[in-house]
């Protein structure tokens, strides 16, 4: 049982992926924590505008979309992931992924982005880490 | 605040992408309009067989799948997108995207398809724009 | 009207794709059969820990994620797919896909994976077919 985001960062580093995109990810997850923006939220998005949701599962991992880009300065790369989960009855739930444990397995294909100088930095407009071009 | 489909067409044109596929797209959207096929629909699909849904949001953009291909003749390229949206409580809704405004940001990775002569034309069988091989 | 998984296997074979990943798939499906893991399931996952769901549709095909890898030995390649479906009212349902018929059309882009020796074999730990490195 491993934490999905930590594993992704390690996999990327081990394969020399500075910038990457999730091309595909399916499997099953449990103990998933994600957050979604509340209604009537204005920009910039503040922590109190978001709702954190924790679900035990296990769930089918139906989709994991997102990317990995370096942060401004010397920090860790920023992994931005949105997840969708299938419940036993087939209902689908999801949002901006904070953390998750792998239940049975997760099959992830990451595409390496070459020739890009795009990075992530905090935006005053949205209040979030956004993609910027150097 | 910009219209997602218009932006996509412009990005593709600016990068010389005649045929492309959305490899990844996450972020947040608002004022989303999509439509889904009704039960008991037979082919060809007619406008009255579909249900248009408009939702204010904002929503987490959990997935945007689709592609861009030239249309038969001299028309604009056809952008075909299916969207999935996360509500504040984690419920997921979605369908065939007509239009949407970006709320905070949208991070889109488009793959360029080379060496293809596939294009879109109206099919008498389905009533929809379908992929055809020249 | 064709069975989605059979079509995928044939397409892959015809294009010399031994290992591949679904980069994008949208369209519409009907008579979809999928299964999801039940609550309180422990590893290894047994058939009685999963719930099979059959739905007539038609549905918007909102996402089809997954991959195709050779199985250990001389068997058929293993196609592993997770599906998400949009109902007329915009509700999304989905899970581990067993079979489906195409309703109007399905536009699938498959990426070929080169230079890999990864294959699928039954895992005693999870009870499922898992990716292994030779």
Low-confidence stretches of chain A: none
Strand count of chain A: 7
What general form of chain A does the structure show? flat
Overall SS class of chain A: mainly beta
Number of helical stretches of at least 4 residues of chain A = 1
**What is the distance, rounded to the nearest whole angstrom, between the alpha carbons of the first and last residues of chain A?**
38 Å
Report the order of strands and helices of chain A. Answer: HEEEEEEE
Largest interface: A-B, 36 and 26 residues
Identify the quaternary structure here: homotrimer
How large is the radius of gyration of chain A? 15 Å
Largest beta-sheet characterization of chain A:
5 strands, antiparallel
Secondary structure: helix percent of chain A: under 10%
């Amino acid at each position: 049982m491993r934490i999905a985001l930590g594993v992704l960062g390690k996999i990327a580093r081990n394969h020399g992926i500075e910038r990457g995109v999730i091309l595909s990810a399916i499997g099953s997850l449990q103990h998933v924590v994600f957050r979604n923006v509340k209604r009537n939220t204005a920009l910039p998005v503040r922590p109190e505008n978001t709702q954190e949701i924790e679900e035990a599962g296990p769930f089918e991992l139906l989709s994991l979309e997102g990317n990995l880009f370096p942060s401004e300065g010397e920090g860790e790369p920023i992994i931005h992931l949105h997840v969708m989960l299938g419940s036993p009855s087939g209902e689908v739930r999801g949002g901006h992924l904070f953390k998750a444990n792998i239940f049975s397995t997760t099959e992830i294909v990451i595409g390496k982005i070459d020739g890009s100088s795009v990075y992530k930095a905090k935006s005053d407009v949205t209040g979030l880490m956004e993609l910027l071009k150097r």
